[in-house]
Amino acid sequence: MPIPFLIATAFVVLIIGSPIFLAILGPTFITFELFAPPIPAMVLPQRMVDGVNKFSLLAIPLFIFAADIIARGQIGARLVAMVESFCGHLRGGLAIATIIACALFGAMSGIGPAAVVSIGPIVYPALIRQGYSRGFAVGLIVTSSTLAMLIPPSVAMILYALQTNTSIGAVFLAGLGSGFVFSVVLCIYAYLYARRYNIAMDEKAPWSLRWKRTKEAAFALGLPVIILGGIYGGAFTPTEAAAFACVYAMMVEVLIYRQLSFKDLFNISSASAGTISVLLILVASGTVLTYYLTLSQIPQQVTSTLAGASAFEILLIINVLFLIAGMFVDPNSLIIVLTPLIYRAALAAGIDPVHLGSVIVANVALGMVSPPFGLNLFIGITTFRASYLEVVKAVLPFIGLMLIVLLLITYIPQISLFLPQVIG
């Protein structure tokens, strides 16, 4: 009775248009009051505070702030120009350059929507001029931006690692393998599309231009190199890397590229504070829900119910669960709410927690472009001034590609585990 009541109440709260954190927090408090054994009044607020009182969690707001700075500056434009100079002459070269630029951008920001806003307006007109259809261009940009969910320093991966007490560094390494496979699949599709529709190719850029574009993007390229090199070289923790990313992004955009002013930084920090506040409230609310589920032994019951199921079956269930939920709920909420439910069952089936992290993050990345409520769909509507139906049609072929990648990541664990095993 308590769990059906909790789910029904949460559904009602969502239906009336309340924020997701209220749909988690309100029903949980009510369920505690009605069904849980009496506890001191201060326990639940203390649990909320404990949920966000973690040093590792600081990495998330810091990476969000760094991503907002990067999205407003010149880094995205310089990355696109550099990558295009190297592969623009290839069949589908501009589309491939877009994919690579989004991957590099993701390696700096960890936030998928940021790439749509930063890189989208730069490459979209060029794709149209070169002969790509409007639908392909929109779908490519909106989908490629989700690479930031897989490639470190992904905020979604940090959330998963914190929820499961898994090494953030190991989960990051697993994401590199997953992100590489996804990038390759997208590049192959871009090549085949360009070949089928005989898309024009640019002239091969001389090495002098390539060298010029590389020098112009050198400070942009330095950010992911320093972040990942510092983490795996032992120079600093992921949280310290996030702080460094903020300082580095500010220095590059304000002092070197001179795209942003100090007043711009203040406005960006105000916008970031809103996003960060919502996310931390969500984390605090999810902590209370997890506490109730633990007291009610729900994860143990799920594990008991799925006892005897193979790893193949458990992974299939996890994929179906996250795919359906991802159509309606944002990625952060999915990770916070659903991960504690299935984590024990996955471990009992022998699934490596690092591999599980890649599977879950790949699912929530797919949810970003899945109708009806994928977040990137609505960002695409705003960025490209397209209708909802137009954006949905544009992403459908790419959703098929993402499903293929998801199956590969799910059932070929070495894609995720190779780098953690070699480097770890």
UniProtKB/TrEMBL annotation:
<feature type="transmembrane region" description="Helical">
    <location>
        <begin position="168"/>
        <end position="194"/>
    </location>
</feature>
<keyword id="KW-0472">Membrane</keyword>
<keyword id="KW-0812">Transmembrane</keyword>
<dbReference type="Pfam" id="PF06808">
    <property type="entry name" value="DctM"/>
</dbReference>
<feature type="transmembrane region" description="Helical">
    <location>
        <begin position="217"/>
        <end position="235"/>
    </location>
</feature>
<feature type="transmembrane region" description="Helical">
    <location>
        <begin position="305"/>
        <end position="326"/>
    </location>
</feature>
<feature type="transmembrane region" description="Helical">
    <location>
        <begin position="391"/>
        <end position="412"/>
    </location>
</feature>
<feature type="domain" description="TRAP C4-dicarboxylate transport system permease DctM subunit">
    <location>
        <begin position="8"/>
        <end position="415"/>
    </location>
</feature>
<keyword id="KW-0997">Cell inner membrane</keyword>
<comment type="function">
    <text>Part of the tripartite ATP-independent periplasmic (TRAP) transport system.</text>
</comment>
<feature type="transmembrane region" description="Helical">
    <location>
        <begin position="95"/>
        <end position="124"/>
    </location>
</feature>
<keyword id="KW-1133">Transmembrane helix</keyword>
<dbReference type="InterPro" id="IPR004681">
    <property type="entry name" value="TRAP_DctM"/>
</dbReference>
<dbReference type="InterPro" id="IPR010656">
    <property type="entry name" value="DctM"/>
</dbReference>
<feature type="transmembrane region" description="Helical">
    <location>
        <begin position="6"/>
        <end position="35"/>
    </location>
</feature>
<protein>
    <recommendedName>
        <fullName>TRAP transporter large permease protein</fullName>
    </recommendedName>
</protein>
<comment type="similarity">
    <text>Belongs to the TRAP transporter large permease family.</text>
</comment>
<keyword id="KW-0813">Transport</keyword>
<comment type="subunit">
    <text>The complex comprises the extracytoplasmic solute receptor protein and the two transmembrane proteins.</text>
</comment>
<feature type="transmembrane region" description="Helical">
    <location>
        <begin position="55"/>
        <end position="75"/>
    </location>
</feature>
<feature type="transmembrane region" description="Helical">
    <location>
        <begin position="272"/>
        <end position="293"/>
    </location>
</feature>
<feature type="transmembrane region" description="Helical">
    <location>
        <begin position="357"/>
        <end position="379"/>
    </location>
</feature>
<feature type="transmembrane region" description="Helical">
    <location>
        <begin position="136"/>
        <end position="162"/>
    </location>
</feature>
<keyword id="KW-1003">Cell membrane</keyword>
<dbReference type="GO" id="GO:0022857">
    <property type="term" value="F:transmembrane transporter activity"/>
</dbReference>
<dbReference type="GO" id="GO:0005886">
    <property type="term" value="C:plasma membrane"/>
</dbReference>
